[in-house]
Amino acid sequence: MLGSFDQDLRVFDPGTTSAKAIEIRKFIKKSKLIPATLYQDSFGDVWIGTISNGLFRYKYQTKQMETMPGTYCNDISSIEEDLQGNVWVSTLYGLSKYDRTVNKFTNYYSADGIGGNQFNPFSSCRLPDGTIIFGATHGLTFFNPVNVAVKRSFPLYFENLRIHSKIIKPYQGKTIIQHLTYNLDIQLNYDQNNFTISFSALDYSDFERVQYSYMMEGYDKYWIDANKNREAYYSYLPAGSYKFKVKMTNNDKSIIDAENSIEVRVSPAPWLSWWAFTIYFLLSSCVILLFIQATKRIKTTKKLALMAKYEKEKEQSINKMNMTFFANVSHEFRTPLTMVSGPIATLYNDHAITVENKQLLQIVNRSVNRMLKLINQLMDFNKLENYSLKLNVKKTDLMSELNQIVDIFKINAANKHIILNTHGFEDSFFMFLDADKLDK
After folding, report:
1. How far apart are CA 322 and CA 386, in angstroms?
2. Scanning 72, 206, 331, 418, which has its CA 20 to 30 A from the CA of 7?
């Protein structure tokens, strides 16, 4: 098999001198295809190491090309297979071991005893006793894979939940949560959004070398470096659903990185829940409806008020016309009565008139004056409508005024054989009054 810059691989047949292309460029994600090393293992599979694009494996039996992620560095230097069938891959940063039984890579660094991290291209071999040698910038790294200790893997668990600095036990209060080791969801009320989650690797012997990072997915934008601290504190976390994630690693890479997560849900406050907003919507709708009805009612009231004002003004205009007509007619009555009053006075003063006739003329004169007074009263009624009528009060004998009014009716009463008697009018009773208004 042959590899060249930015070209698909070729399988060369020496017998026919022909070459068959094997597609690999369609798997390339970065830049160009730069083959660094080719290696065929004991199973017949071909491993292709590249610069910047990592490791590939071509299976002859199935004729399939596949990417092999898992190496820490994508710049491959050299490839070797040990006697157990594991594939060792050196890179520009670290050494990787592919375990065929579990289909997984384990990475080793200078902290694991390999001397350095940067390995040279095409610089590797396997000795007959199984020792593998890799050349690097720091010199030779050689080891027997049988003696290489397996990197440890420890599970990462959540430990406790503390709300307002108080550890919450299973089903305590309104918080529904079992021990966090079981990774059940955390359900918090709106007033429990100040809390602390503690976490740890199960192997406490290496706790000094373990470092943690955490992130509340949906709230935090970046991973938070907790260093050796095994707690994450959140204050006033808004209502919603989140995923709390924790990563574990160590500087010397002696353990396999681990990650764990747990669901966290914070319920909204009652006044911010969906049913509260439904009530707000209904109340707002009622207020708006009442406002519309009130506006319509006000408009109707104003319209009725304008109509009533118009009717009142119309009625006042008609009344004014009537009163003007009534005043004019009263003036017309007053003129002939005044003319009658003059001759009666002349006859009354005539010495040829008998005493009895004078009495009759006096009664006629009183009646004429009475009619003039009534006419004046009708004209005063027009003044009353115009709010221009005023009192004219003076000290007067009430009994004398009443007797004058009664005397007008005595002769007519006698002609009709009606006896008209008065009681209590004999004496005098002075008081402040308007005689004209009393007569009315």
Report:
1. 13
2. 72
